[in-house]
Design goal:
By secondary structure, this protein is an alpha/beta fold. The chain contains nine helices and nine strands. Helix 2 (35-53) crosses helix 5 (106-115). Bound molecules: S-adenosylmethionine.
């Protein structure tokens, strides 16, 4: 059964002061609050992977990669973490899933709701580093580059791992560390505060998940993780990591 048939904006759970310290936002996160950024985002997104991978990389190719590896099924409940203009939310809704499309930017959510009209999507304004959503409440989670922008990527990964059901897939797309001068500049708080994680660092911050697939094209990494059993830790021998 799909419990979320009508698109609606459920509630706001920004939790900017949750946890031990106030949740500050990176400059990149704050730039996403602007209507101009939200307005231009879908256009940038359609071309971004071609630019970042150095080869033709359409949204259709990205969606096909995700669908082949994660196989979202009708009736499943997925979280799209940092939905922006709703790319993964749309892919999931067209596959018949119920989707919670979450973002901390009201402007992004407004654009996404206008662009992605499929039924079965719920839109939520929240900071996913501390969402307050129930544990193990999603069949799967998509994270398209949100890891690069969030203030504390380790905290975001821990929260997403908590929200994922045992056996559920976690799909990550992010720009990995290259050590180049542009990334060093964009990592500075005053110039974006972006994080460019190393895949080994990501794996260490998902102790209850196993990485089942990974692919790096240029600077862009696509990874599928799978949540281990409830309360358990990773079992690499059961789920060998495959490079594509
Ligand atoms: C690079 S964009 C994501 C693009 C989108 N996932 C896609 O694949 O097209 C990052 C988005 O994540 C949101 N975001 C960043 N940090 C977040 C957080 N901690 N919680 C919720 N949303 C966040 C930003 O507002 C922005 O819209």
């Amino acid at each position: 059964m799909n419990p979320m048939t009508a698109p609606r904006h459920t509630k706001e759970t920004l939790n900017l002061t949750a946890g031990t310290a106030p949740r500050r936002l990176t400059l990149a996160q704050r730039s996403n609050l602007l209507r101009l950024t939200a307005w231009g985002y879908a256009g940038w997104r359609a071309r971004a992977l071609t630019w970042l991978t150095g080869q033709p990389f359409s949204l259709e190719r990205e969606a096909a990669l995700f669908q082949t590896l994660c196989r979202p099924q009708p009736g499943e409940r997925w979280l799209d973490a940092g939905t922006s203009a709703g790319f993964y939310a749309g892919v999931l809704a067209r596959a018949g899933c119920a989707v919670l499309a979450a973002d901390l930017s009201p402007a992004m959510l407004a654009v996404a709701r206008r662009r992605v009209r499929e039924p079965g999507i719920d839109w939520l304004l929240t900071n996913l580093e501390a969402s307050g959503l129930p544990s193990a409440s999603f069949s799967g989670v998509t994270v398209g580059a949100t890891l690069n922008e969030t203030q504390d990527p380790g905290r975001l990964l821990a929260e997403l791992e908590r929200l994922l059901r045992p056996g559920g897939p976690l799909w990550l797309m992010y720009i990995a560390r290259t050590g180049g001068p542009l990334q060093r500049l964009l990592s500075r708080p005053a110039l974006g505060g972006l994080t460019f994680p190393d895949p080994a660092w990501v794996a260490r911050h998902l102790p209850r998940c196993v990485r089942t697939h990974s692919l790096q094209v240029g600077a862009v990494v696509f990874e599928r993780y799978e949540r281990g059993p409830q309360g358990g830790s990773r079992t690499p021998s059961q789920l060998p990591h495959r490079n594509l």
